[in-house]
Design brief:
Blueprint lengths: L8 H9 L16 H22 L3 H12 L1 H4 L4 H7 L5 H19 L3 H24 L25 H15 L4 H25 L4 H17 L4 H23 L20 H17 L51
Helix pairs in contact: 2-10, 5-9, 6-7, 6-8, 7-8, 7-10, 7-11, 8-9, 8-10, 9-10
Length: about 350
C-alpha cells in the first residue's frame, strides 16, 4: 500500500520558494473603497492642519522648541549608537534596494511586474510630493535655527516634511500594500507603522528634525499609500505594454529569415572551333615534333657470360700471406719424409 509523506513546515517553506508554473489567476489588488477614501480625506486634513499650525507659529512650534532644548541625544546618550544605525531604515538608498530585491523575487515567482511597478510609482510620487513641499516651504532644521520661537519657514531649508519618515512609511508600507493575504496585510501594516514612527522619533532624538516634521512626513507617506489604488489601471497598462514588447523581441529573435529563391542554373554553351585556329594549332604541333632530336632506344651491349667454375680466383691485395713451403697445390702427392735414426 502506497502512503504519501506528510509535508513538514520546512517542506512548505521550500515549496513556496519555487516558481509557480504560471501567473496566479486571481491577484488581490486593493481597490478604491469608501473606507479608503474616508481615510485618505482624514489624512489629508491632518496634513493641512500640521502645515497651518506651523505657519501660524502655534503651540506645535513651541513644542518643537521645547523638545529641541531638551536635547534627547544628551539625556539618553547610551542609545546613541543604536539610533544611528536604526535611522538607516528611513534612508532611500538602502531601503529601496532591500525592498526592490524582495519584490523582484515576487515578480519572478508570480510571472508579474506589478510589485516592482507599484514600488516605482510610489517612489516617484514620494519624490514629487515630498520634494515639492520641502522646497516650497523651505523650513530650517533645529541645528540651523536662527530665531528662538520662530517657525523657521521660507528660509531656504529642506526638512519639512521629514523625508526619512515619509520614505519609511512608503518603503515598508508597500510590502503591506502588496501582501497576498489579509492577515499578512494587517501584520505588515502594523510593522511598517511602528518602523516609520520609530525612524521619525530617531531623527528627533538626533536633532535633525522638528517633531512637527515627523508628523507631516508620516502623513505624507500615508497619503501616497492610500492613493496607490487610483494608479492600478496605469500599472496594469504598463505591465501589458512591457510584456508585449518582450514577446515581440523574442519573436524577432526566433523568427526564421525568409529563404531566397534558388539562382537559375546556367547551361554551358558548347563553342564551335574556328577552322583557321585549328589549322594553326596543328601546324604548331608538327613544328614542335620536328624540332625534337630523335633519341635511339637504349640497349644493353651483349657480353660473354662465363661460368662460375671458369673464373680465376683472385687474391685480394689487402691480404698478404707469407709463403708456406709445406703447402702443396691441390691434387699433388705429398713428398716422403726422410727417416732419421734414433
Amino acid at each position: 500500500m502506497r502512503t504519501e509523506r506528510t509535508l513538514t513546515r520546512l517542506d512548505r517553506v521550500f515549496a513556496r520558494l519555487d516558481r509557480e508554473p504560471e501567473r496566479p489567476a486571481h491577484i488581490d489588488v486593493p481597490k478604491t473603497s469608501r473606507h479608503r477614501i474616508v481615510l485618505f480625506a482624514a489624512t489629508l486634513a491632518f496634513y493641512v492642519a500640521i502645515v497651518w499650525a506651523v505657519v501660524i507659529t502655534s503651540w506645535l512650534v513651541r513644542l518643537d522648541w521645547q523638545v529641541m532644548f531638551f536635547r534627547p541625544y544628551q539625556q539618553w546618550a547610551e542609545i546613541h549608537a543604536f539610533v544611528d544605525y536604526y535611522v538607516v531604515l528611513g534612508q532611500r538608498g538602502p531601503t529601496a534596494v532591500m525592498v526592490a530585491a524582495w519584490l523582484g523575487w515576487r515578480s519572478w515567482r508570480q510571472h508579474t511586474l506589478r510589485p516592482l511597478l507599484a514600488l516605482g510609482v510610489s517612489l516617484l510620487l514620494l519624490n514629487i510630493t515630498v520634494g515639492a513641499a520641502k522646497l516650497g516651504m523651505g523650513r530650517l532644521g533645529p541645528h540651523y535655527a536662527t530665531d528662538i520661537g520662530s517657525n523657521e519657514m521660507w528660509l531656504g531649508g529642506d526638512i519639512f516634511p521629514s523625508g526619512h519618515t515619509a520614505n519609511a512609511v512608503v518603503t515598508w508600507g508597500i510590502l503591506a500594500y502588496l501582501a497576498s493575504t489579509p492577515r499578512a496585510r494587517r501584520w505588515l501594516s502594523a510593522l511598517s507603522a511602528v518602523t516609520s514612527l520609530g525612524v521619525g522619533l530617531a531623527t528627533v532624538y538626533l536633532g535633525t528634525h522638528w517633531l512637527s516634521d515627523v508628523l507631516l512626513g508620516w502623513a505624507a507617506g500615508l497619503l501616497i499609500l492610500l492613493a496607490l489604488p487610483w494608479f492600478e489601471p496605469l500599472i496594469a497598462r504598463a505591465e501589458t505594454w512591457i510584456f508585449d514588447q518582450r514577446d515581440r523581441w523574442r519573436a524577432g529573435r526566433q523568427a526564421v529569415p525568409a529563404q531566397l529563391p534558388p539562382a537559375p542554373v546556367e547551361v554551358p554553351v558548347r563553342l564551335k572551333p574556328c577552322p583557321a585556329a585549328a589549322e594553326d594549332e596543328a601546324a604548331a604541333r608538327e613544328a614542335a615534333s620536328a624540332a625534337r632530336s630523335p633519341r635511339d632506344p637504349f640497349q644493353l651491349a651483349p657480353s660473354p657470360h662465363t661460368a662460375r667454375s671458369e673464373r680465376t680466383p683472385v687474391t685480394p691485395v689487402s691480404i698478404r700471406r707469407p709463403p708456406h713451403q709445406e703447402r702443396l697445390a691441390r691434387g699433388a702427392a705429398p713428398a716422403a719424409r726422410p727417416l732419421t735414426g734414433g
